[in-house]
Amino acid sequence: MFRATLLFILLFSPYLCADRVSAQSDGTYDPTFVQGTGFAGDVLAITRQADGKLLVGGDQLSIYNGVAVKPIVRLGADGTLDTGFDVGTGPDAPVQEIVTQADGRILVGGNFFNFNGVNSRRLVRLMPNGSVDNSFNIGTGANSMVTSVVVQPDGKVLVGGSFSQWNGATVGGIVRLLVDGSMDPAFNVGAGTNDNVNDVVLRPNGKIVIGGYFTQYNGTTRNQLAQAHGNGTLDTSFNPGAGAGSSYSVIGMALTADGKLICGGDFWTWQGASVNGLVRIATDGARDVSFNGQSTPTRIIKVAIQADGKALLAGTAGLRRVDTDGNADLTFETGTGFYGGLQVVAAIEQLPDGRLLAGGQFSEYNGNAVGSIVRLATSNVGIQEPEQLQASVWPNPSNGRMTIQWPGQEQAWATVRDLTGRIVLEQVPIFSGAGLSLDGAPGVYMLEVRSASGVQRLPIVKQ
């Protein structure tokens, strides 16, 4: 027993300290994400489910780590392919957006006409197992691509894209659906935008920010940005003025904690000032002159705000991070960065433990073969380790059948790794006092029990 326990400590010490070690260098490649050879094709969307599993979609996704897949797949939290997620023949064209609902169902938007043989023009809702949810009926759907999907707190769904019609009605790039997929008659955008909508952001007060390539919203001049009330009518208190001018677009947006809006795109000026694809907008639509928009390369596709207020920027220059004043954050080091293909990062997903997933079209990250998806460390890792959950497990040693208990009644997720760090029991949702069954060979394993308020890692021995 002593030899086994010592081996456990030696092999798992890096894992136990990973939160602190990885904080030494933001942007560090995380080798514990086991994507292997990764994807053949372009990753355009990554979304984390409540149970930690990852939904990934894109263009011409055909292989993942040597296994044939469809343009939407589900991975375990560690990067292993979830073969229990079955989309059949899947979509017949690229997936651009994936959003999960509170009930576990999945909204998928893109440029497809059919999904697993079901007519689903540019938007479909899936059951948690990947099958088409036939109770969600969008009629004839969109006449062009869906690029953004937002689920409101009331369950209604905002959809943006390059479409001008939805189920035969003129909507101008933005529509809201009821929970059954039908158009919300209380949402009236009039003529909507006069060109593509690339991103939609819902404010906590219910107002809706729309970014894209357009210059008008329902006949009123609005360059690249417009804000609508909850009923779809234009909010005239928000005015971006000249914006980026003509022939440019806002591609990605994110709200800061104080309600300002960070916008990225392919523009060089904003309201007459020189910028470089990045701008911060005040709540009235004016450019925030205290924010430096010249510190990053142009054509930003995605924007995400960290808990510390720093902004992650994905695009044609790979992945960058800026401080809260817009200046380049030099502590975020990507080394040689992304290589292969177009070297574009098109999707980013922040994880609860502070790590970051990036997807796009690339084959390497800082010299490591990754195949269009990679997991990185960021400064949130190790700065604040979650509190101990005070979980206990018995019997230990056991024959693989054990009970886990902790104070309180909140739900947690149990994960078990072997001595190599490989996950052998993945993200099982449990409550205190629940039983857990571990199959596999006798030996020493690591049990991690993680809830919203804490985490505990315990060595367990299977006899």
In brief, what are we looking at here?
This protein has 463 residues and is mainly beta.
Give structural notes:
The chain has two domains: 21-376, Methylamine Dehydrogenase, Chain H (7 Propeller), CATH 2.130.10.10; 386-462, Immunoglobulin-like. The radius of gyration is 23 Å and the shape is globular. Strands 34-41-40-37-38 form a five-stranded mixed sheet, with helices on one face. 4% of the residues lie in helices and 41% in strands. The protein starts with a helix and ends with a strand. The longest helix is centred in the first third of the chain and has 15 residues, at 2-16. The protein is mostly beta strands.
Sum up the overall morphology in one term: globular
CATH architecture of the largest domain: 7 Propeller
CATH C-level class of the largest domain is Mainly Beta
How many helices does DSSP assign? 2
CATH superfamily of the largest domain: YVTN repeat-like/Quinoprotein amine dehydrogenase
**Strand element count:** 41
The count of domains is: 2
The name CATH uses for the topology of the largest domain is Methylamine Dehydrogenase, Chain H
Question: Distance between termini?
Answer: 10 Å
- State the helical fraction: under 10%
Instruction: Describe the sheet with the most strands.
Output: 5 strands, mixed
Question: Which regions contain 5 or more consecutive residues with pLDDT less than 50?
Answer: 1-24, 380-386
- Compute the average pLDDT: 88
* Rg, alpha carbons: 23 Å
Strand adjacency order, main sheet: 34-41-40-37-38
What percent strand?
35-45%
Structural class: mainly beta
Q: Name the assembly state.
A: single chain
